[in-house]
């Protein structure tokens, strides 16, 4: 999962460099870069948690940041580029899958 969250953040960064440089995209790009990176960073923090309660908190933050990443990805304007649209959908799907994984981890950990 370390690698998967890292790759999500990295793929988001590569994706946004190809987007049209509109005013709204510029702002949304900043947000999605932050939130996708936060997914990876908080996953690392969860694995170094000092307690079960701390672990659950970090996983909840991961889930929240994945959900936020999905929102920003949906708001980005890909212009007329079908390839960018497909890449956007792939990243949205990955954010959704990460949310579901984090949710399952939280539920199975017993402290919801």
Concise structural overview:
By secondary structure, the protein is an all-alpha fold.
How are the SSEs ordered, and which strands pair?
Blueprint: H1 2-16, H2 23-47, H3 52-75, H4 82-109
Helix pairs in contact: 1-2, 1-4, 2-3, 3-4
Please describe the biggest sheet, giving its number of strands, its sense, and whether it closes into a barrel: none
Average residue-wise pLDDT: 95
Per CATH, the superfamily is 23S rRNA-intervening sequence
**Could you say which overall geometry the principal axes of the C-alpha atoms support?**
elongated
**What CATH architecture label applies?**
Up-down Bundle
CATH topology: de novo design (two linked rop proteins)
DSSP helix fraction: over 70%
From the structure provided, what is the oligomeric state, counting identical versus distinct chains?
Answer: single chain
Structural class: mainly alpha
CATH secondary-structure class = Mainly Alpha
Overview of the molecule:
With 112 residues, the chain is mainly alpha-helical. The chain has a single domain, classed as de novo design (two linked rop proteins). The chain is built from four helices and no strands. The two termini are 21 Å apart.
Which labels suit this protein?
112 residues; mainly alpha; de novo design (two linked rop proteins); 4 helices
